[in-house]
């Protein structure tokens, strides 16, 4: 969201208002939402709220449908092409940045659940979940893990880490990264494909943290390349890890972490099997 256009994004329209502005019916907006073409935010009482950006998107959807006769899949592709160009990204980059949000939305639809139902189950607001599904951003590392677990999958799978066309050799500085879902946390892939290990390079900005403890199956290995990491196991075992330090632990133990360095902390982090 641009910091120089706060007024544009502060406006919120109810479903009837947004439908009128887009020149369609309210039921059509709900249909487009079920098809993943637009995901409005929700008020605290659960009512749909459309931003000015959402309304502009609705108008484009309406135009693509009426003037070009496109089906939902073709409309979605056309919108992504436009948005990728507007952001200075090629189609591959734009798709990678938003895939995980769309995949979460698809899993929710497949489960037959509403935003409100999943948000209530997860103890989060529906607007936060909506933002994640639309932008692949805005949640903590713990929430990202817990949502994947809720749907019976892993973050690695949702991030496309198990793709088939992975390179065996990954050169220094050419690491593909997860979508930037969590502020201050960059996860780079040191190996891809259907491996027995998740091999990651974590880059944590000052103050970056998991924002809660999580657990899963498997075992983990952490090696600090630079900076300083505080890691807590089962809420009562504290580790202050410095450059060159390593830690090995069972993933089923609740673990949380934060960067205690005033600069970036860089980690080699391995999970086996790939259960995160």
From TrEMBL:
GO terms for molecular function: dioxygenase activity; DNA binding; DNA-binding transcription factor activity. Residues 12-81 form the HTH merR-type domain. Residues 81-100 are annotated as: Disordered. Keywords: Dioxygenase, DNA-binding, Oxidoreductase. PROSITE patterns: HTH_CROC1, HTH_MERR_1, HTH_MERR_2. One of its GO terms (cellular component) is cytosol. Transmembrane segments: none annotated. Residues 104-158 form the HTH cro/C1-type domain. This is DNA-binding transcriptional MerR regulator/quercetin dioxygenase-like cupin family protein.
């Amino acid at each position: 969201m641009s910091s120089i256009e706060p007024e544009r994004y502060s406006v919120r329209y109810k479903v009837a208002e947004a439908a009128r502005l887009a020149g369609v019916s309210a039921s059509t907006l709900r249909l487009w939402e079920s098809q993943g073409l637009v995901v409005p935010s929700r008020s605290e009482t659960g009512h749909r709220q459309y931003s000015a950006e959402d309304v502009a998107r609705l108008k484009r959807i309406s135009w693509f449908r009426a003037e070009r006769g496109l089906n939902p899949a073709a409309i979605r592709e056309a919108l992504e092409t436009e948005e990728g160009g507007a952001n200075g990204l090629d189609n591959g980059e734009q798709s990678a940045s938003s895939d995980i949000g769309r995949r979460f939305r698809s899993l929710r639809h497949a489960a037959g659940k509403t935003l409100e139902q999943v948000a209530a189950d997860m103890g989060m607001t529906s607007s936060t979940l909506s933002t994640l599904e639309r932008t692949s951003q805005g949640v903590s590392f713990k929430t990202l893990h817990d949502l994947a677990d809720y749907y019976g999958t892993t973050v690695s799978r949702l991030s496309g880490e198990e793709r088939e066309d992975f390179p065996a050799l990954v050169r220094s500085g050419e690491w593909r990264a997860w979508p930037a879902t969590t502020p201050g946390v960059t996860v780079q892939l040191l190996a891809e494909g259907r491996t027995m290990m998740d091999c990651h390079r974590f880059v944590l900005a000052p103050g970056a943290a998991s924002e809660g403890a999580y657990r899963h199956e498997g075992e983990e290995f952490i090696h600090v390349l630079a900076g300083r990491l505080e890691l807590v196991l089962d809420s009562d075992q504290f580790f202050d890890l410095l450059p060159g330090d390593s830690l090995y632990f069972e993933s089923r133990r609740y673990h949380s972490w934060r960067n205690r360095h005033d600069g970036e902390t860089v980690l080699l982090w391995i999970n086996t099997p790939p259960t995160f």
